[in-house]
Specification:
Blueprint (H helix, E strand, L loop, with lengths): L1 H13 L22 E6 L10 H14 L6 E4 L9 H12 L2 E4 L5 H8 L5 E4 L5 H14 L1 E4 L4 H6 L4 E4 L9 H12 L7 E7 L10 H6 L3 E3 L8 H12 L6 E7 L5 H10 L3 E4 L6 H4 L28 E7 L18 E6 L2 H4 L1 H10 L4 E6 L1 E2 L1 E2 L10 H14 L4 E4 L16 H10 L5 E4 L8 E3 L2 E5 L2 E3 L5 H14 L5 E7 L5 H9 L5 E3 L2 H10 L19
Helix pairs in contact: 2-4, 2-5, 5-7, 16-17
C-alpha cells in the first residue's frame, strides 16, 4: 500500500497524472516602461551578399544580443524598405514613448561594438562562398551569444576583445542545403527555442534581407530556409521534423524562400502542424519593439460605425467595401489619399504582443474612415483547410483573445492550400465554415479570399462574403474600372455587395479614382456596415467548396 501511494505521488509530482493543459501563447517579456535612451544605427540600401550584407549581418546579430532584457538598439532601414513605417515608427517612439535616440553613423560597426560588444561572448565566422552558412551562423549567434562576422570583419571583432567561438569557413562548400541544415540541427537544435522558429527565406541568390533575424537571435531560435516543395524531399523531411518538435502554441516567423517553394506550400505545411505563421522575412527591429509596452493612457479602440447587435436595412443599391490586407506597414498606409473614402484594413493580430508600438501607431494614426478587422484565418497567417480539426479550438481561442484586445468585430479568412487567384480554388468546405461560426460567436461576420472566391453564407445575422474582385498593383485605373463595370452588369440584383481586395501597394487615391469613374453610383462603406447590410438582404447564394472542385497544391 505504501509503495502504491509513493508511486502515485511520484506520478503526480512529475505531472504524468495532471490533465492536459493548453499551452499559452508565447509572448516576449515587456519592460515596465520604454527606455529613456536608445541607439539608432542607419543601414545602407545595399543588401547584396557581395555588398553590405556582411556588415548588416554583424549589426543585426549585435542588435539581437544587445536587446536581450532591454531594448537598446534600433536599426534604421532604408527608405525603400518593404516594411515602410520603420522611420515613422522611429518618430512615434520618440514622440509618444519618450525615447531619446542617439544616432551612430551609417553601418558604423566599430562604434556599435564600442557600445555593445559586452553583450556578446565571441564571434562566429560565416563563409562568403556559401550563402546558407550565414543562416546557420544566425542560429549559432543566438545560442552561443556570438557576433556574426565574415572573414574580413574578424579583425574588427578581435579589436573589441572578442574570441572566435565557431568558424564555418570551408565547412559546407559543395554541400546541398539539407546537408548543411542537418549539421546545424545535429549541433545546435537541442539549445534552440521551441516557441519560435525562423524561416529566413524571402529574397534568394545574391540578395538577402534578414530583417527578422534580430528577433530570432534574441529568442535563440533555429534558422533555415528549408523548402516545403515535394521536389526537395530531403529538405521537406527535415522541415517536417523541425515543425513537429515545436511547442503547440509556437510561431514560425519569417517567410518561405522565393527560390525554392511557394507561399501556399509553406503556409500549408505550417498549418498542418497547427502552428502559426507570422510571415515577413524583412520585418525589422522586433527584438526592440516586442519589449516596448503600450503607453499607460492607450487602449485599442476601433472606429465602429454601428452597434454589434444592430440591424440595418439595405437599400436597392451597390454597396462597395475596399479591404487592404498584407500587413498595414507594407502597403498604402503612408501613401496619398488615406481618409478620402471608407477603407478597411486587415490588422496583423499577433503584433498586439509582438510589435505593440506599431499597432499603437496605426490605431492612433487612423482617420475616421479607417476601419480594422482581424486576419488572416486565425492568430497569424493560417489556411483554414490545413489546420487539423483537433488543433483548431486552441488556436482560435488565442485568436478570440486578440480580437477582444484589439477591439475587432469581423474576421478575414484566406486559403491558398488548394489554389490561388489563377488556379485551383480558394473556397472553404462547409465543415470548415462550421468551425468558424462555432468558434467566433461574437463577430458580426466573415470575409473570404485573396483573389475572388465563391464561399457565401448567412447564419444568425452573420454573413460570410467572398471577394468579388482583386485589384492588382499593375492594373490601371481605366482597366480596373472596366472590370468593375462588367461585374455590375453581371450582378443585376440590388442590393449588390461588391467586396474588393486591394493589393497592398495600391493607394487609396487610386481606388478612389476607380470608384468615382463608375457609371452607376455606388456607396463605399466600411466592412462593419457592409456586413450589416449583407445580413439584411441575402442577394447572394449560400455556397461552399464542392467535392469535385479542382485543386492545385502548388499555388
Amino acid at each position: 500500500m505504501r509503495a502504491s501511494r509513493f508511486f502515485f505521488l511520484v506520478l503526480l509530482l512529475t505531472g504524468l497524472l495532471l490533465p492536459a493543459v493548453t499551452r499559452a501563447q508565447p509572448i516576449p517579456p515587456k519592460v515596465a516602461k520604454a527606455p529613456a535612451e536608445a541607439t539608432v544605427i542607419p543601414l545602407s540600401a545595399n543588401w547584396r551578399m557581395d555588398g553590405d550584407i556582411p556588415v548588416h549581418a554583424l549589426l543585426i546579430s549585435l542588435q539581437g544580443l544587445a536587446n536581450r532584457g532591454l531594448p537598446r538598439v534600433y536599426l534604421e532601414y532604408p527608405k525603400d524598405w518593404q516594411w515602410e513605417i520603420v522611420r515613422p515608427l522611429e518618430g512615434f517612439l520618440e514622440k509618444r514613448h519618450g525615447i531619446k535616440f542617439d544616432r551612430l553613423g551609417q553601418d558604423d560597426a566599430d562604434a556599435a561594438l564600442t557600445r555593445f560588444a559586452k553583450y556578446t561572448k565571441g564571434y562566429v565566422v560565416w563563409d562568403r562562398k556559401v550563402r546558407t552558412s550565414l543562416i546557420v551562423a544566425f542560429t549559432i549567434s543566438g545560442v552561443e551569444d556570438a557576433l556574426v562576422v565574415s572573414e574580413d570583419l574578424i579583425p574588427l571583432a578581435e579589436k573589441h576583445g572578442l574570441k572566435k567561438i565557431a568558424d564555418l569557413r570551408g565547412q559546407f562548400e559543395g554541400q546541398p542545403d539539407y546537408t548543411i541544415y542537418q549539421w546545424a540541427y545535429d549541433h545546435y537544435w537541442a539549445k534552440c527555442s521551441r516557441d519560435y522558429y525562423v524561416l529566413l527565406g524571402g529574397h534568394s541568390g545574391i540578395e538577402m534581407q534578414p530583417g527578422i533575424a534580430d528577433f530570432g537571435i534574441m529568442e535563440r531560435a533555429f534558422f533555415s530556409d528549408l523548402s516545403a516543395h515535394p521536389k526537395h524531399p530531403e529538405e521537406l523531411a527535415l522541415e517536417r521534423k523541425i515543425l513537429s518538435q515545436q511547442n503547440p502554441a509556437s510561431i514560425v516567423v519569417g517567410w518561405h524562400s522565393y527560390g525554392k517553394d511557394t507561399e501556399g506550400q509553406h503556409t500549408s505545411l505550417v498549418g498542418n502542424y497547427g502552428l502559426k505563421m507570422e510571415g515577413l522575412h524583412n520585418l525589422p527591429n522586433i527584438s526592440f519593439t516586442s519589449q516596448i509596452p503600450l503607453t499607460p493612457d492607450f487602449k485599442f479602440t476601433n472606429t465602429h460605425h454601428v452597434a454589434a447587435d444592430a440591424k440595418l436595412h439595405a437599400e436597392k443599391k451597390i454597396y462597395v467595401c475596399a479591404v487592404a490586407t498584407d500587413s498595414m506597414g507594407i502597403g498604402a498606409w503612408t501613401k496619398p489619399g488615406r481618409g478620402k473614402i471608407p477603407y478597411t484594413w486587415q490588422a496583423p493580430m499577433n503584433w498586439a504582443w509582438m510589435n505593440p508600438p506599431a499597432m499603437q501607431f496605426f490605431y492612433e494614426d487612423r482617420t475616421p474612415n479607417d476601419y480594422f478587422i482581424a486576419g488572416l484565418g486565425g492568430p497569424g497567417y493560417m489556411y483554414p483547410k490545413t489546420i487539423p480539426a483537433d488543433k483548431f479550438p486552441a488556436l482560435m481561442k488565442d485568436a478570440r483573445a486578440l480580437i477582444t484586445q484589439l477591439d475587432l468585430r469581423a474576421m478575414e479568412l484566406m486559403d491558398y492550400s488548394e489554389g490561388n487567384r489563377q488556379v485551383g480554388n480558394t473556397d472553404l468546405p462547409k465543415e470548415v465554415v462550421d468551425r468558424y461560426y462555432r468558434e467566433f460567436p461574437d463577430v458580426i461576420g466573415f470575409i473570404n479570399g485573396y483573389g475572388t472566391a465563391r464561399t457565401y453564407d448567412l447564419r444568425d445575422g452573420k454573413p460570410l462574403i467572398s471577394y468579388d474582385y482583386y485589384l492588382d498593383v499593375n492594373r490601371s485605373v481605366k482597366d480596373a474600372a472596366a472590370d468593375l463595370e462588367e461585374l455590375i452588369q453581371l450582378n443585376p440584383a440590388r442590393p449588390y455587395f461588391m467586396l474588393l481586395h486591394i493589393r497592398e501597394r495600391n493607394t487609396v487615391e487610386k481606388v478612389t479614382e476607380i470608384l468615382h469613374s463608375l457609371t452607376e453610383p455606388v456607396e463605399v462603406v466600411p466592412l462593419d456596415l457592409f456586413l450589416k447590410y449583407a445580413a439584411d438582404a441575402k442577394t447572394y447564394q449560400t455556397h461552399y467548396k464542392q467535392p469535385d472542385d479542382p485543386i492545385n497544391r502548388n499555388p
